[in-house]
Every structure is written in C-alpha cells, then in structure tokens.
C-alpha cells in the first residue's frame, strides 16, 4: 500500500509540473491575444475597450498578404520534399546494412540537436556565399531548400523510430508464434502418444 501511495504521489507531482510548465509557456501567448483586441496602443490594464481595428489594419497591408502567401508556398513545397527525403533515408536506415551507416545516421540527424536559430543563420550565410559565387539571390527556392533540409531530418527520425518499433514488434510476434507452434507440437505428440496408449 505504501508503494502505491508513493507512486500516486510521484505521478501527481509530475502532472503538476507539466501543468505549471504549460501555464508558464501559454499565459504570455494568451495575454498577447487578449491585448490584440484592445483599443488603445499602450499595453495596460484595465482595458479601455475592445476592437478589431488592428486585425483590419494587418490584413489590409499588402506586404502581410505577400508574406503569408510565401509562407504557404514554402510550407507546402518543403513538406512534400522533406517527406520524400525523410522517408527514403529512414527506409535505408531500417531495411539495409551498409558501410558507414552509423556515420550517415549521425550526420543526417545532426540538425535535430543543432539550435534552430543558429541553423537558420548558418543556412542564410551559406546561401549568400553560394549566391555570390554562382550569381543568384536568396529567394523562395533557397527558403524551401533550407526548410526541407531541416524538416526532412525530423521526418526521417520519426519514420526510423517507427520502423525500428515495427521490426521489434515483428520479431516479438515471430518469437511468440514459434513458441506457440512448439507448444502445439509437444502437446500433439503427447496427445498422439496418449491416444495410442489407450487404444492398445
């Protein structure tokens, strides 16, 4: 009973910590959303009034519309490209053994542990150097390439973990089936011997 109480206490503590972290992260976002409907320019309480004028100003700005369209294009294209790259890489990790496999995995998964802001700056500098060398400017294509490289790593990691889990489950099922088959074989031999003994 003491262990059950201790486990329940630990679980309650962990749940409380998770809730506290979520509140800590989401309270500022909720506060910003609330202040976006405020009539005045100064962020103070109590509210002077509610308005949608800030949203009308935002969506009537042509630059915001163009940026939104560019973001949608980058998101759609990088999703398709990174899914194809990630699936291919993960399938090769899970299904095949080849020389340098571990090194290839380390290099492919490195962007997951690299700080995302720093990775973005490095990619921007890299594409700027390439642009100066080969005479092109940063555009949607370079943004799609950078985002695909980053997202493809995540897709590959998720699919690889799922593939490893599937392989593990498949081997467990095969082991269980072979154990059951062996059990049935032993019992059928025993029953066959018993039936022969009773007929004699």
| SSE pattern | HHHHHH
* Secondary-structure class: mainly alpha
Number of strands: 0
As a whole number of angstroms, the C-alpha radius of gyration is 29 Å
Structure annotation, total helices: 6
Contiguous low-pLDDT stretches (5 residues minimum) are: 186-198
Main sheet: strands, sense, barrel: none
Overall pLDDT metric: 76
Strand content: under 5%
3D shape:
flat
Helix content: over 70%
Amino-to-carboxy terminus distance = 58 Å
Describe the protein.
- The protein is mostly helical and 200 residues long.
- The radius of gyration is 29 Å and the shape is flat.
- It has helices spanning 2-35, 53-59, 62-95, 101-113, 116-134, 140-199.
- Helix content is 84%, strand content 0%.
- The chain contains six helices and no strands.
- Residues 186-198 have low confidence and may be disordered.
- The longest helix has 60 residues, at 140-199.
- Helix 3 (62-95) packs parallel to helix 6 and helix 4 packs across helix 6 (140-199).
